[in-house]
Design goal:
The complex is a heterodimer of chains A (267) and B (326). Chain A is built from 12 helices and no strands. With 267 residues, chain A is mostly helical. Chain A has one domain. In chain A, helix 1 crosses helix 7, helix 2 packs antiparallel against helix 3 and helix 8 packs antiparallel against helix 11. The mean pLDDT of chain A is 88. Chain B folds into 2 domains: 242 residues, Rossmann fold (3-Layer(aba) Sandwich); 60 residues, 2-Layer Sandwich (Alpha-Beta Plaits), CATH 3.30.70. Helices cover 35% and strands 29% of the residues of chain B. Chain B has a 6-stranded mixed β-sheet, with helices on both faces. Chain B has a 4-stranded antiparallel β-sheet with strand order 11-12-10-13, with no helix packed on it. In chain B, strands 2-1-4 form a 3-stranded antiparallel β-sheet, with helices on one face. The longest helix of chain B has 18 residues. Chain B starts with a strand and ends with a helix. Classes of the chains: A mainly alpha (267), B alpha/beta (326). The interface between A and B is medium-sized, with 28 and 33 residues.
Chain lengths: 267, 326
């Protein structure tokens, strides 16, 4: 266990080396946050009917989305892992007396936690001081906030289990473009980081509820703004848990199969 | 049973084959042609504990593939291999605890952070007890002269500095076996010497079994008493370096300093040239030994000074490759 924590620590230290990237990330997140919010403000002002959420709820959802984007998005690929596979550094990985799946799992989660730690605080602080309509609201209740934290934690485990899957596939395909990119794009849309799930058409909401993606970040954010009842929150977290176990199991099995067929690139 | 026992190992890779050019690329987009490349075929050898074995062969002979099979990274198509009572690819996690590997062309150090941070990670990965770790680390730092470079981000190190750190990283857990795949690639003379001396020392003091590949024959001659030569996936020679040298080293270069005039005729003397200070001879040791030559020469003239040179080991290897047509 200790080795995995050290992996996390090193990823964290490595990421700290790139301060400019963190600042640029923060700036980007502010920019996108404002753009998205302005779109929704215009949308609400034009007086649409049957809107699924209150405007302040949507704004808070969008800011949370930006603040925790580095943690919950699927499009960030851990370049280091792909490089290992494509250029043959996998040799060293296989020469370690540890489960390769969990080595990768902790590398990815370490990277994500490191990235988000450098970014979320400035966003939360500044946006909670902004005037309406750009104001980041308080959580619906203390319990909602607690559930939000819990399910965000589970969501992080879930998105990590998902993203570790892709390099494992790449062990055989040798290229992460194509299928993997397609899955990631669909996954990101269905996770609600582009448009919150309540704004989806009914049929897509039903399909999405059977897929893992919306349990990454949509569930915690909607718990925070109080769009989801606490009872449903418990149910949602059970689903998160099931997906996590399922993906980790599948990932381990696939890893075992693919390691046997691995080819070290580049001599 | 030997410490390392390799029996009839074979491994084939499937390689995508495609001619150059746009038309061929489009064609191969729809239909792929594969060829099976036999990386190693029917390789067998055994190695005793504490040996240093040089594993040599031309590019693409299967050296790295063998090393990767022996270190549990690749799984052979057929054959058996037992090292320290374990099969590398079957008991991978348990087995790799006992081995250290250095791949000269790759890096195991984390690029953005100092090497010492990677060392700390390895300590946790190999579950090295704190005290043992500190002693080993101090020792490696001292021997490989890492004091000044261990705290600099790896990306800012020179190749030679980095390689010294790589080797230290592979030895933190005191492995019983050390696999070195071209450990001196790209290093300058001084760094090479440091690395060689170091390998010699740990082999002597800790009885570490070392298997190394290199294209620099000086590495092999200074380290290995025994070599295994492979070409096109087959073992071609397995035995002492000395024997190989004797087999192929039929020429010796003798330069004699003298003021006298030398006239000598012998089947064993292939070439005689007059120089400013004396004569340069190339002799064939199959017909005349050095002592016989000296005997003859010293009877005829007064020798002021004499120098005897071996044939360059690199030339021997070139000859060897030619003989085996690899």
């Amino acid at each position: 266990m200790r080795a995995y924590i050290t992996y996390f620590k090193l990823k964290f230290i490595s990421s700290l080396q790139y301060r400019m990237a963190a600042w640029a990330g923060i700036a980007t997140q502010f920019f996108f946050g404002f753009v998205y919010i302005m779109v929704y403000v215009a949308f609400y002002e034009s007086g649409g009917n049957h809107l699924p959420m209150e405007l302040p709820q949507v704004v808070t959802y969008l800011w949370l989305n930006q603040a925790f984007l580095a943690l919950v998005n699927q499009f960030t690929k851990d370049q280091e892992l792909y490089k290992l596979i494509k250029e043959g550094g996998i040799s060293y990985e296989l020469a370690r007396p540890k489960n390769l799946y969990f080595m990768w799992y902790f590398k990815v989660i370490g990277q994500r936690l490191a990235n988000v730690t450098l970014r979320f605080l400035p966003l939360i602080l500044v946006t909670s001081l902004l005037p309406k309509p750009f104001h980041l609201g308080a959580p619906a209740s203390f319990l909602h906030f607690l559930f939000f934290l819990l399910s965000l934690g589970l969501g992080t485990l879930l998105v990590t289990a998902l993203t570790v899957f892709y390099p494992i596939i790449t062990l055989l395909t040798m290229n992460e473009k194509g299928t993997v990119t397609l899955i990631i794009t669909i996954g990101d849309i269905l996770s609600g980081i582009v448009v919150p799930i309540p704004f989806f058409p009914r049929f897509l909401q039903i399909i999405s509820s059977f897929l893992p993606f919306q349990y990454i970040s949509d569930l915690p954010f909607r718990l925070y703004v109080g769009d989801i009842s606490l009872q449903y929150g418990v149910f949602g977290m059970c689903i998160q848990f099931i997906w996590i176990i399922l993906f980790i199991l599948l990932g381990n099995i696939l890893m075992k199969i693919n390691i046997k067929r691995v080819v070290v690139q580049g001599g | 049973m030997s410490f390392i026992e390799v029996k009839q190992i074979s491994k084939t890779f499937r390689v995508n084959k495609k001619k150059s050019g746009l038309k061929e690329s489009i064609k191969s987009f729809f239909k792929r042609d594969f060829i099976d490349v036999k990386a190693v075929e029917d390789i067998s050898f055994s190695i005793e504990e504490g040996e240093i074995v040089g594993y040599i062969g031309p590019n693409g002979a299967g050296k790295s593939t063998t090393i990767k099979i022996l270190s549990g990274i690749l799984i052979p198509d057929s054959g058996e291999c037992v090292i320290d009572q374990m099969t590398p690819w079957k008991n991978r996690v348990k087995y790799v605890k006992k081995i250290g590997v250095v791949f000269g062309q790759r890096s195991q150090l984390w690029w953005d952070i100092p090497a010492e941070d990677t060392f700390d990670l390895l300590k946790d990965i190999y579950e090295i007890p704190e005290e043992e770790y500190q002693t080993t680390k101090e020792d490696l730092i001292y021997r490989l002269n890492l004091q000044d470079i261990i705290n600099i981000p790896v990306r800012q190190l020179s190749l030679g500095q980095r390689m010294r750190c790589e080797i230290a990283a592979s030895l933190l857990h005191n492995p019983k076996i050390l696999f070195l795949d071209e450990p001196t690639i790209g290093l300058d003379a001084v760094s090479k010497q440091v690395v060689r001396d170091f390998i010699k020392k740990i082999n002597k003091e800790k009885k570490t079994t070392v298997i190394l590949t290199s294209h620099d024959m000086a590495d092999i001659t200074s380290l290995a008493k025994r070599i295994i030569l492979i070409g096109k996936g087959h073992v071609l020679y397995d035995g002492s370096l000395k024997k190989l040298q004797n087999m192929y080293e039929t020429e010796k270069y003798v330069s004699i300093k003298t003021k006298d005039k030398l006239s000598i005729r012998n089947k064993g003397i292939k070439e005689k040239t007059k120089t400013k200070e004396g004569y340069d001879l190339i002799i064939d040791t199959r017909y005349i030994t050095i002592s016989e030559l000296l005997n003859i020469v010293s009877k005829k003239i007064t020798i002021d000074d004499i120098e005897i040179d071996h044939e360059n080991i690199d030339n021997i290897i070139v000859k060897l490759y030619e003989d085996y047509k690899i």
